[in-house]
Amino acid sequence: MIPHSVPRVLRLGPARLTAGLDHTRRLDLPAHRTLHGDQVPRTLDDIIAQVEEVDMRGRGGAAFPFARKLRAVSDAAGSGECVVLVNGAEGEPASSKDAMLLVRNPHLVLDGAVLAAEALNAREVVVATVAGEVAESSITAAVAERRAANVAGAAESRIGIRVVGLQERFISGEGGALVRAVNGLEPVPPGRKRRASTSGVDGLPTLLSNTETYAQLAVLAELGAEQYAKVGTSREPGTVLLTVSGGAANPAVVEAPTGTRLIDVLDVCESEIGDGVLIGGYHGAWLDSRTAMSAIVSREGMKQAGGSLGAGIVVPLGESTCPVGEAARVAAYLAAQSSGQCGPCRLGLPDVARGLTALADGTGSIDAVRRSVRAVERRGACFHPDGTARFVLSSLDAFEEDIALHLEHGSCGRPVRGVLPLPEREDEPEYRLDVDWTRCQGHGLCAHLLPEFVTLDDYGFPSFKTVPGWMLKEANRAVDMCPALALRLAEAG
Amino acid sequence: MLHRRHPRHAPTQLDTRNIRLGASASIAAVLLSVFALTLTDRGMEMLGRGVSFLEYYAGVLALVSLTATVALGLLTTERVFLSPANRVRAQLAHRAAAFAGTAFLLTHVALMISLEHVSPAAAVIPVEGIYVGFGTIAFDAMVVVVITGIVRGRFAVTGRPWVWRLMHASAYVAWPVSILHGLTAGRWAASWVSWSYIACLAAVASALLVRLLATMLRPPQTAEWVDAPEASDAPVEVPAGVNAPVSLAEARRKYREAG
Questions:
Q1: Which of A11, A164, A321, B2 is the residue whose CA sits 20 to 30 A from A437?
Q2: Where is the NADH-ubiquinone oxidoreductase 51kDa subunit iron-sulphur binding domain (chain A) (predicted)?
Q3: Considering its fold, how many domains does chain A have in total?
Q4: Last residue of a domain, one of A207, A228, A249
């Protein structure tokens, strides 16, 4: 399989996860084997020792020590079954490293997952990714390539690999929601946290981690701890994948050793910092231009700068767009992405977004936004309300001067360009009331039943407005009750 | 501003949620108490009395509520005396009465069959003599009427709303036939009952007649002639120029010229 177009890749320092991607769109199995060699099975203790030596962490955002996760799954499984689950449904609109790995280098991810699965004696490997995207077809093709190679006599692992396509939502990347989705339940975060390592896919102990984690594991097994730790800082050796988008002229997935300066990463993507850089995605925080100039790419460096590396999302804002409006757009998106399970999140996040929008219009107040943020913080089953609160509070701090300008003049003079990438909004269905004028006798019952959407003219005949989807029941009643059978409902558009 | 979190139901007074809740609760209560009654001997005895009451009166109740339904249905088309709000209420009452009437009718038919007064076939085809046969015919027509009533909105989409009117109008056949059935099958009706039915029949027939006549005698609906200027042969007389300013620019120019 050769994908038509793929996420761009750049690098600073040595090529590890992105090795070989300069000359090809996708590494198929022979290319991958030539580049990375055959896979050698390891014992679990061997892997854990190596992982601990380089202090490898989960790369999905939470940075949980991977060795502890491995040990927890192995303890929970005992001599029973367990499952290895690859989280390839990031859900973050500003991130494309999962898609990049699955589309361009799927065998590296599978190598890592299979390595862990064989060491854990797992029942199967499950790769969860977004349904209907190129990533899904690429990883499915990769699984087929391995099976075909085995038929042809190669010694690929015979462990079962299952690809699960999911509906993409912002919260579908959350671990609990992902496990539920793979189990065939609704992809929403569970009310009570359960560690996947004790009860995950089909209730079995599950090793759940991000695609990049497994790819890093494969690289670590190939290079050995010493070679692996040759680049990067001493406390967090190795490389990280960063997704640079937004105001970058040259958006790409960048592989950089830890300890690289953030400004170098931004330079290679030809982006200007402008009003700030968003680190860690839409649940992350803004760095102002001065901090961003000196910030170091590593968990520790980002923490010192006041952000968190998270899943490695870097969004420079640039200077040409209105930062308050951009933040309001993202807040509105995040509010709409609430799964609607927890009341404070469902009702509070739209209020937060409204508050930010009012600020962008120059009518709101910072205090009102802070109050509505306080009503949602730490009041939900998952991290979504907290992460949104962090983003909004960070925006309030980072764009203080712009907000003051907005409050005084109604605008900072710059239009909202939509620099922060957001998926397109799905339109809610709207309905149009059609009237057969030859039948209508001007009874006026429709105007009585739908006073907000039907007005009668001087002769007593109706004129209609579009009816929103949530008034469908009432509109249907008007259609049913029309004495002349003259009304009907059609989808507007 | 209308908002989805605060939909405005109040002005139409049509929030029937309480009524629906009450109806469901009472139906559930009746079913539960029937179940509870079956548990004791005394309860079974009471239940037997209840069944024999329904055996005698379910048909009567059905007839009374269906009479009300027909009257209300006729009333909903009334435009002279009823405001739109009351016409909406009349439609709702028409539906509620129809629902009750159908429920009693089904009870009546089910009881008559299960107590073996008539054979099951009599529910669909008139096999049990002419008096019960009236009821069968009325029941068949009622089925058509009920179905058309439920799917009314569908007919607004099709090109032939008169099909709906025709089918729904079979109520005007079913109802008198069912009155005949009520007066002739079973026990003798008291004379005041007969008279009141005849009065109902006469009232509805006259209202129907008025409606039909009004529809047939309605003057043709054409747009009226507007009295436009008549054509004439009078000679041309051009009036002198307009003194008042026609446009703002004109006014400014005149003002400037005047100094």
A1: B2
A2: 324-369
A3: 4
A4: A228
Nearest CA in chain A to B88: A445
CB contacts under 8 A, A 454-473 vs B, are: 468, 470-471
Looking up residue A27, the CATH number of its domain turns out to be 3.40.50.11540
Domain at A381, CATH number: 1.20.1440.230
Query: Same structural domain for residues A101 and A32?
Result: yes
pLDDT in tens, B193-213: 788 888 888 888 888 888 888
Give the ipTM: 0.74
Sequence-ordered list of residues with C-beta below 8 angstroms from that of B254, at least 6 positions apart, any chain: B245
Which residues of chain B have a Cβ shorter than 8 Å from any chain A Cβ?
2, 4, 7-8, 11-12, 14, 76-77, 79, 84-85, 87-88, 91, 152-153, 155-157, 161, 164
**A219 with A185, same domain?**
yes
CB contact under 8 A, B87 and A482: no
How far apart (Å, rounded) are the C-alpha atoms in residues B166 and B189? 32
CA dihedral A144, A148, A150, A153 (to 10 degrees): -160
* Top-confidence residue, B26 or A4: B26
| Same-domain check for residues A342 and A392 | yes
B77 to chain A: which residues are within 8 Å by CB? 483
CA distance A351 to A346: 9
Residue in chain B nearest A453 by alpha carbon:
B2
Is there a single domain that holds both residue A189 and residue A155?
A: yes
Q: Is A49 part of a structural domain of the chain?
A: yes
Rounded to a whole number of angstroms, the distance from the CA of B186 to the nearest CA of chain A is 38
Q: What is the pLDDT of residue B1?
A: 42
Query: Could you give the percent of chain B with pLDDT greater than 70?
Result: 93
Provide the pLDDT confidence category of residue A470 given band limits of 50, 70 and 90.
Answer: confident
Q: Write down the pTM of the prediction.
A: 0.73
CB contact under 8 A, B88 and A445: yes
Q: Which residues of B fall within a CB distance of 8 Å from A448?
A: 12, 84-85, 88
Buried b (16+ CB within 10 A) or exposed e, A278-287: bbbbbbbbbb
Q: Which residue has the tokens 């068949």?
A: B140
- Phi, psi at A314, each rounded to 5°: -125, 115
Structure tokens that stand for A259 in this block: 């300890």
Inspect the interface and report whether the beta carbons of A471 and B7 lie closer than 8 Å. Answer: yes
Instruction: Please report residues of A whose CB lies closer than 8 A to that of B78.
Output: none
Check pLDDT > 80 for residue A208. yes
A395 in a structural domain: yes
pLDDT averaged over every residue in chain B: 82
Do A329 and A312 share a domain, yes or no?
Answer: no
Say which CATH number the domain at A468 has.
3.30.70.20
Chain A, 291 to 310: residues with Cβ < 8 Å from chain B are none
Cβ within 8 Å of residue A227, ≥6 positions away: none
